[in-house]
Amino acid sequence: CRNSLTNGMFSLLFSHLGIGYTVGNLTSKPDRDVLMQDFYVVESVFLPSEGSNLTPAHHYPDFRFKTYAPLAFRYFRDLFGIKPDDYLYSLVNEPLIELTNPGASGSLFYLTSDDEFIIKTVQHKEAKFLQRLLPGYYMNLNQNPRTLLPKFYGLYCIQSGGINIRLVVMNNVLPRSVKMHYKYDLKGSTYKRRASRKEREKSCPTYKDLDFQDMHEEGLYFDTETYNNLMKTLQRDCRVLESFKIMDYSLLLGVHVLDQSQRDGGEPGQAGGDGRRPVGQRVLYSTAMESIQGDGKAAEALTTDDTMGGIPAKTHKEEKLLIFLGIIDILQSYRFIKKLEHSWKALVYDGDSVSVHRPGFYASRFLKFMSTRVFRKNQRKCAGSASSHTHTHTHTHTRFEEAHMQKKSKQRDGAAMGSRKSCLDKKSHSVGVFYCVLLGTCVSLLHY
Question: Which of 37, 217, 238, 344 has its CA 20 to 30 A from that of 262?
Fold first, then answer.
């Protein structure tokens, strides 16, 4: 987005005023059950620079602030134990932190100083899709508040000078108070699922599926109960997403290596952090461990100083880990453009390997990848002696590891190129048919 920085600063300045007004105004409305029509309410307030009987004066251009489904989102915040004063303080009274976005969406991300909330700019179609999603989302949260799906706390729009900026407030998956030694965006696909060179050069890069297979070839190990709870949660969430015809979502996965933190001289679970409290002390069901707990045990037993809300895990070398995770980017539906994108990529590449796919297939592939390649249970003892566990690497990425990863990357890339070439040879005769179908569809749309 050419004006992304300008729009980002614009949205931050004006959202403080708008959210402050709308949340404060909402406290005067009595609590009641959420009705179907509440999901479609849009409240709008005009905030002139000189102020009005309802709004304070400010030093910015006149703007209009819209709040979508205010009563419904208040219900969601209440469900997660978020008090109005805390919500307002997090978003308005403390400076926000801009985050880098490795994706191609062009969205801007901001984190509140207390680590509780993410503010994301969304496109018009994503905001409309979230509005349509709200009734089903409400029913799902009532039945299952323990979920890895995003927790949405508010949807807003700022209008000024012909510019519309839409903001969604949601939970933060990866706390800054815990150093993430690895960070992954996983879809379960292989086509173009490797971090770019530019991304790898960052201090904390976000890797992708093929990178994960190179760096954690044996996967991440959990005890049986934790693994079963995690997979049940993922299966339930994927069924919900499939029912809404949602695809192209990801699992955001953060890995904190406890052993490495101790070697670096930090406290367990806190190395590299900034000494602030762990995420999730105020917001219920917001930590990774709370999100997968299946039997409703006391939440205070889950979020401890030792785990910081993360899920205990190990590598095949018995390295102790804390896992932080959540499903992200669920505002993509399998509509005409996505169907067209999949049809084209399926002709040129292996259709099963591309990320864009029909929701049912996407969910099945996603779950298979997570349950067999990423997460595993009943770890086998390593063949090496006990000394092999004590002589660990001083740094996460040694020269040997980098060379090994590069070698495996070349092998995978070579295999992928061979697969794509074979796919091209087999499917090239279908390209003409595809263009005919595409032309016919476009003509039909024009006539329509």
Answer: 217
With both helix axes pointing from N to C terminus, report the angle between 336-348 and 431-447 in degrees, rounded to the nearest 10: 170
SS3 (DSSP) at 157: strand
Counting runs of H as helices and runs of E as strands, what totals does the chain give?
Answer: 14, 13
Out of 179-183, 194-198, 393-397, 408-412, which region has the weakest mean confidence (pLDDT)?
A: 393-397
Q: Give the whole-angstrom CA distance, residue 434 versus residue 444.
A: 15
Other beta carbons within 10 angstroms of residue 410's beta carbon come to 10
Q: Is the pLDDT of residue 438 over 60?
A: no
Question: Cβ contacts of residue 366 below 8 Å, gap of 6+?
Answer: 187, 188, 238, 249, 251
Strands 375-377 and 220-222: parallel
Alpha helices for 55-181 (secondary structure H): 70-79, 84-88, 124-143
Domains and CATH numbers, the chain: 4-171 (3.30.800.10), 182-342+359-412 (3.30.810.10)
Amino acid at 122: V
pTM score: 0.76
Percent of the chain at pLDDT > 90 equals 44
- Confidence grade of residue 406 (pLDDT, cut at 50, 70, 90): low
**322, β-bridge pairs:** 256, 312
From 209, 253, 213, 246, select the one nearest 362 (Cα to Cα): 246
pLDDT at 274 over 50: no
Among residues 215, 195, 178, which one has the least CA distance to residue 398? Answer: 215
Out of 16-30, 37-51, 169-183, 299-313, which region has the weakest mean confidence (pLDDT)?
Answer: 299-313
Q: Which residue has the tokens 């300045």?
A: 13
Percent residues over pLDDT 70 in the chain: 66
**CA proximity to 285, closest of 153, 158, 425, 123:** 153
CA-closest candidate to residue 307, choices 378, 252, 258, 262: 258
Structure tokens at 233: 């949660």
Amino acid at 310: G
Q: Give me the amino acid identity at 72.
A: A
- Give just the sign of the alpha carbon dihedral 83, 85, 88, 91: negative
For 243-258, what is the mean pLDDT?
94
What is the three-class DSSP state of 167? Answer: strand
Residues in the chain: 448
Q: Which residues contact 34 (CB under 8 A, 6 or more apart)?
A: 71, 72, 75, 138
